[in-house]
Amino acid sequence: MSKKPLKILIAAAEVVPFAKTGGLADVAGSLPKALARMGHDVRIVMPKYKQIREGNYLLDYPVEMDHHLETGILKQTRLNDGTVDIPVYLIANHQYFYRDRIYCFPDEAERFNFFCKAILGMLPLIGWQPHLIHCNDWQTGLVPMILQTKYADNSYYQTIGTLLTIHNLQYQGLFPRQTMSLIGLGDEYFTPERLEFYGEINFLKAGIVYADLVNTVSVKYALEIQTPEYGERLDGLLRKRAQDLYGIVNGIDYDEYNPATDQRIYKNYSLDSIDCKKVNKSRLQQEMGLPAGNAPLIGMVSRLVDQKGLDLITGIFTEMMDLGVQFVLLGSGDDHYQKLFSELKMRYPGQVAIFLGFNPDLAQKIYAGADMFLMPSRFEPCGLSQLISLRYGTIPIVRAVGGLADTIENYDQAKEKGNGFSFKPYEPGALLDTIRQAVALYQDQPGLWRKLIINAMKGDFSWNKSAQEYVMLYEKAIHQNLAMLYQVV
Ligand code: ADP
């Protein structure tokens, strides 16, 4: 490493392997490992939810909620995979975090206001001062704001830079105006320049306004969110901060997602033994109650929400079935989609398998066993599922948007280039045409399909490159914060 090691605190509401609802958890659990391998002193902080059993008691401390004091109970565990050993701070508070789920409570504003204040409150007590706090998503959006307001004149905090990563602009942490006083924020914060957002409070906006730098999880999405179409009403602010807004594509943990060693799949394989992938397919078919054979098997592992383009899929379902494909979906989310896919399963027995729920083991079996992976998202900040699919030689069929556009290159048969299939217009017909092309190549050109699998598996979407880009961004943010500070002083 050329420069001196950085001290980075990664703050997130979910981190693999402790708590996960989506891609944020994967990133918050795998980026730190890549940074630690590069020699940086990286630590993680997250809430201690009821489901988290780990954690040794470190200390208790008062967390000032302006109108009253709450107690933060700080515990510590470690993220250790044999190569790195990362301290993980778990902030416990019985009232806020000892619950049966992670999110979706009426007092979210209070919970994550507490989390943000508790993050900053613990720092002087643990004898470790980060150069930068890497905030992730709205749950940590108040951290940069508190640093720049309440602690603006506090010499301990002044030198700490901030980066806010937006993993999904759709989730902003919006709360009614009266929450301001509930969480102890004065009216001076309720202005369009600060937290006010169309009459409500917006935690993500606080982060965008106050963080030294902001990034999203792909280059394309960083551009898209500056337009009204993808900007979720924050495009104006994001355009205003365009100079400080970057895109860094996510990586995936190549140790965790490795078909050669993954204990969750039926048979391990690698580039040298691609044929063993077929064993995964036949075992998956067997377990799913799908007939054995060479029918193209299309897989999906997804949150069942509008973002994922599910209406496109249901819009062409009959035609897709007519192509003779098999379809297996693992997902959880909106009732509407759960019901719809359950009905489709009844309508196509022996051709469709649907599993509602969150099941990381089954997810891996699908990534390994399917021939193709469907991800026709309406928008996609980065997307990890297509990257996991590539790693397992399962060919992604995606809509060319956000991170999907940045990572999936449409297959060019003449040049034998590309790693998947993609289409642009958000139209069922465009999706169907693309599935048709994929199915035709699979059925008619097995030799080319094999080469496509090789292309997919050869790509490098590990953290190596992206972690270096994060380090550059951290350095820039730290520098920018110090430059501002010394201008003012
Ligand atoms: P998002 O963060 O929008 O949900 P990503 O593609 O970035 O989408 O990440 C999704 C992650 O969550 C992937 O690791 C995927 O395998 C996992 N996942 C999604 N749904 C499920 C599920 N029902 N069971 C297990 N894992 C899931």
Written description of the protein model:
The protein is an alpha/beta fold and 489 residues long. The chain has 2 domains: 7-251 and 464-486, Glycogen Phosphorylase B (Rossmann fold, 3-Layer(aba) Sandwich), CATH 3.40.50; 271-461, Rossmann fold (3-Layer(aba) Sandwich). The protein is built from 19 helices and 18 strands. It has a 9-stranded mixed beta sheet, with helices on both faces. The protein binds adenosine-5'-diphosphate.
Question: How are the SSEs ordered, and which strands pair?
Answer:
Layout: E1 7-11, H1 23-37, E2 41-47, E3 56-64, E4 69-80, E5 85-92, H2 94-97, H3 108-126, E6 132-136, H4 142-148, H5 155-158, E7 161-166, E8 174-176, H6 179-182, E9 196-197, E10 200-202, H7 203-210, E11 213-216, H8 219-224, H9 235-240, E12 245-247, H10 276-288, E13 297-304, H11 310-315, H12 317-322, E14 326-333, H13 335-347, E15 352-356, H14 360-369, E16 372-375, H15 385-391, E17 395-399, H16 402-407, E18 421-423, H17 428-444, H18 446-458, H19 464-488
Parallel strand pairs: 1-2, 1-6, 2-5, 6-7, 7-11, 11-12, 13-14, 13-16, 14-15, 16-17, 17-18
Antiparallel strand pairs: 3-4, 4-5, 8-10, 9-10
Helix pairs in contact: 3-4, 4-7, 10-14
This protein binds adenosine-5'-diphosphate.
Summarize the structure.
With 489 residues, this protein is α/β, with parallel strands linked by helices. The chain contains 19 helices and 18 strands.
List keywords for this structure.
489 residues, alpha/beta, Rossmann fold, nine-stranded mixed beta sheet, six-stranded parallel beta sheet, 19 helices, globular, binds adenosine-5'-diphosphate
